[in-house]
Amino acid sequence: MMEILSHLIDGFAIAVQPMNLGLIIFGCALGLFIGAMPGLGSVNGVAILLPMTFLVPPASAIIFLAAIYYGAMYGGAISSIMLGIPGASTAVATTFDGRPLAMQGLADRALVAAATASFVGGTISVILFTMFAPPLADVALAFGAPEEFALMMLAFGTFIGLGGDDIPKTFFSIFIGLVLSAVGLDIVSGEPRLIFGGIPGFMHGVNFLVLAIGIYGIGEMLWTIESSRGKLNVSQATVSVSRILSCLKDLKSTIKSMVMGSFLGYFVGILPAAGATPGSLMSYGVAKTLSKDPDSFGKGNVEGVVAPEAANNAASTGSMLPMLTLGIPGSPTTAILLGGMVIWGLEPGPRLFVDNQDFVWALIASLYAANLFAVLINIAFIPMFIWVLRLPFTMLVPIIFILCVVGGYAPTQDMHDVWLMFGFGVVGYLMRKLDYPMAPAVLAIVLGPLAETSMRQSLLMSHGTFSIFFERPVAGPIMVVAIVLFLLPLIKMIKDRIKKPAEGTDA
Q1: DSSP of 484-505, one letter per residue?
Q2: C-alpha angle with apex 284: 281 to 285, nearest 5 degrees?
Q3: Does 67 have pLDDT greater than 50?
Q4: pTM for the structure as a whole
């Protein structure tokens, strides 16, 4: 424990350097703005701004992006409450009770509750992160190629078995991502594959950043234009110091929901590919189940705001744990952070805590600072965010569009990627319209090359036999769990079919 504290103090020494502290504050403010804008969110903000971080050292860049991530998780509640439109999928559950509170003239109460719950969730999760990251990193040092492939299968299995989306559509989304991840040169033979008739731009593969900006930036923008049709009604919120203090006093009764949401969100966030959205929805459901007045949920119950907000902030920190220690992103946003770290020459995984100790602890220390500044900026800037949300969407669209084009062009400086980004934007819009989950596709394009490399290395080790994934003491159990998760929807379907005739016979 003393060793962890020593490392954390060293991390704070780096995090509070003037440039890094300035980036944390700026990142939190920017993240709040991004999270508050309908159609944006942490994924879009981090994806669009990633190319702009090449001007600073890698440690400062990841601290800045993590601050944006944190700020965006706070900001998502603002548009959910004020407009009834989630700033991101992670804030969907906040809309259920946050919007009714705003309609009742209690928008300030909902906004302060969301900010406070986010702070509690963030604080608990960062403490858990500090305690459990090094031990998990030590365990991860024993991982080889078969274990890595088993973990990749577990990540995809989590989406299939625990996701609430349509299973065939989730499979389709994953397969699309895997196909796109295979574009370029074969990792073993060096032969070109899936380059669509020899188009030179496809030789370097499909950049995951281009896919992310296309689907989440352009695609979400098109969706918002169609769904809003200029009818974004903003609720008025009165904010004063006395009202904020009064709202904080009223939150004493919701402490249990905050703590429950924090722990649940953190552990759901750790699951590879789960992320904050299922964590916040699960937390809302548990809070409703445990409440003394479940019927008030959906009509303006403050517990319906604090539980999902604590969960999605806790999950955002939890999702960084598998990214840093195992090299597996726990959410779409951490998938983009993972790509950024690779671009900067930092290899996420078991060796990161050994080879780049200063970087890791500076990042962990920056999360404490980001959490504190995010809650202060959130409460102080509520009136300003409300004013920004009154801007006509016709003014916001060109700004988002320009940022997307710059973000798509910057990584490779190839116009091919810009056109590809527009194509992905249209695909993202159609997927949204047809209710296809987009997160599996983004994760698959990041995990695809990692899964292929570890699988082929494992098969070379075992001379082509797949038993290597089941014989090893760590890979075997993980692989079995992954297979069970893949089969869960099928088991559930068979159970339902057996149940129906039985019910018919009883009748």
Answers
A1: HHHHHHHHHHHHHHHHHHHHHH
A2: 90
A3: yes
A4: 0.65
- Give me the residues paired with residue 185 across strands: 192
Amino acid at 409: Y
Cα 292 to chain centroid, rounded: 32
Radius of gyration over every alpha carbon of the chain, rounded to an integer in angstroms: 22
| Tokens matching residue 241 | 């110091």
Q: Which of 6, 52, 121 is nearest to 365 (CA)?
A: 6
Name the DSSP letter for residue 442. Answer: H
Contact status, residue 172 vs residue 437, Cβ threshold 8 Å: no
Per-residue pLDDT, 385: 57
Q: 193 φ, ψ to 5°? A: -145, 145
Rounded to the nearest angstrom, the gap between the alpha carbon of residue 124 and the centroid of all alpha carbons in its chain is 18
pLDDT of 331 above 50: yes
* Helix boundaries (H) for 389-474: 393-409, 415-433, 439-461, 468-471
Written as one string, the DSSP assignment of 377-409 is HHHHHHHHHHHHTTS-HHHHHHHHHHHHHHHHH
Q: Which helix (H) or strand (E) holds 311?
A: helix 303-318
Average pLDDT, the chain: 77
DSSP-assigned letter for residue 203:
G
pLDDT digits (tens, 9 = 90+) for 476-487: 888 898 888 888
For the stretch 370-390, pLDDT in tens is: 888 888 888 887 676 556 555
Q: How far apart are CA 170 and CA 321, in angstroms?
A: 24
For residue 181, count CB atoms less than 10 angstroms from its CB and return exposed for 0-12, middle for 13-18, buried for 19 or more: buried
Give CA torsion, residues 44, 56, 330, 426, to 10 deg.
30
SS3 185: strand
CA distances from 374 to 28, 69, 276, 283 (A): 5, 10, 18, 22
Per-residue exposure over 288-313, b if at least 16 CB sit within 10 Å of its own CB, e if not: beebeeeebbeebbbbbbbbbbbbbb
Q: Distances from the Cα of 391 to the Cαs of 19, 234, 318, 394, 400, in angstroms?
A: 32, 10, 34, 8, 14
Confirm if 265 and 121 have CB atoms less than 8 A apart: yes
Pairing verdict, β 192-193 and 184-185: antiparallel
How far apart, in whole angstroms, are the C-alpha atoms of residue 347 and residue 338?
Answer: 9
